[in-house]
Amino acid sequence: MAPKEIRWGILATGGIARTFTKDLTVDPTTRGVTKVKHVVVAAASSSSKTRAEAFLKECNWPNAKAYGSYEEFVKDPNIDVIYIATPHSHHYQNAMLCLEAGKNVLCEKAFTVNAAQAKKLAEKAREKNLFLMEAVWTRWFPLSIYVREQITSGRIGTVYRVQADLSMADNPDKTYADGKNRMVNLELAGGAQLDLGIYALTWCFQTLYHTQPASERKPPKVQATMKHFSVTGSDESTTVLLTFPRSEKLGGDAHAVAMSSIRVATDPANGIASGPAIRIQGDKGEIQVFPPAFRPVDTRVILSDGTVEDKHWEQPGPGKGSGFYNGFGDTIQPEGVGQGMFWEADEAAVAIFEGRKEGSFLDLAESIVIMETMDEIRKQGGLKYPDKIETLDYPVAL
Ligand SMILES: NC(=O)C1=CN([C@@H]2O[C@H](COP(=O)(O)OP(=O)(O)OC[C@H]3O[C@@H](n4cnc5c(N)ncnc54)[C@H](OP(=O)(O)O)[C@@H]3O)[C@@H](O)[C@H]2O)C=CC1
Ligand SMILES: O=C1OC[C@@H](O)[C@H](O)[C@H]1O
User: Fold this and answer.
1) CATH classification of 4-138+354-361 is 1.10.3210.10, yes or no?
2) Is residue 308 a contact partner of residue 286, using CB atoms and an 8 Å limit?
């Protein structure tokens, strides 16, 4: 059967939009995906149509339509699904715009600013019978699927403890001195937790929550501490203790530590001598996942009988290497096409093809529980964003 063509629209033309849109040029059959193929039919920039044109050319979709306004773009009848790649502050307004216009949506992490916004979006998607998913790309990597299978197969026994860290030494006093960068800007819902901590939580949730039978999944209890960035008051380092309640039959409570920082790094010398970013500890062994937590390519399983099993998970496609931060205010994704963003795109496309309205490895209920966890972390850490980005009102001009 010929693959079904899924027509993408790209909302915003920044750093990650570029990586994602380039990844859509990689032939899905090179990674064993035969049901769907991707085509980018449009992109929109809120700054100008010229910027959208240049973006499409750079991303190798020169025939797609360029828009200089998100409002005009969402009306394009050729678009099946929209990828939203604006700052966190804008996700709620942008996703609502797309859903109201009848478009399926794949929205970058963190899904929204707060859980109430995530719930509203979920309600809107259900009302309109549209697909909606948070784009936490890591969940769809074969590496993550393997880690979850190691857990559910019982290979490392019952998992009692998880440690996960995504931290980058950005030298914030210098790099973010003017407070404008989206990493620290409160108007853009900046801060370590929403930008980086979401991945540490992702690892805790996909190992201790998602691996439980759906009927047994319970939100964790949260204890959090935050250190604030002196220039803007956003969080520069956040450390969270999570207690996942489990029945005695399943091993009783499990503990997790989720850390994020823009001051110190998980991996200070980019792979030289660094240890695991994630440790998943069971009573028969442990799984280690090496940095960076958002795009890991190496795992190690260590069993109590002395077995050590290392695996390397290079992303299929021409691109190589891991993402890094350049220290000058920009996040640089690895160079080249084929960085692994296509896995989440495949999931969205296959879901739309099959008529599913949610993602398989991260559904809306789980995204909402994670947003509730982040609400509690922010409450305990004393981090509040401006009302205009916490609001449920729509439309609001930001
Ligand atoms: N999955 C991953 O690995 C990564 C995910 N992300 C996520 O992607 C999203 C965007 O991050 P990133 O691409 O790094 O951000 P950038 O700052 O590079 O791009 C954001 C884009 O959003 C649009 N935008 C609209 N309104 C505003 C505004 N008021 N201020 C700034 N930008 C605005 C702009 O595009 P335009 O002018 O065209 O409208 C801009 O280029 C975030 O949610 C982030 O968490 C980020 C990096 C990696
Ligand atoms: O999602 C992300 O992953 C990579 C980081 O460099 C970036 O800041 C973050 O948004």
Assistant:
1) no
2) no
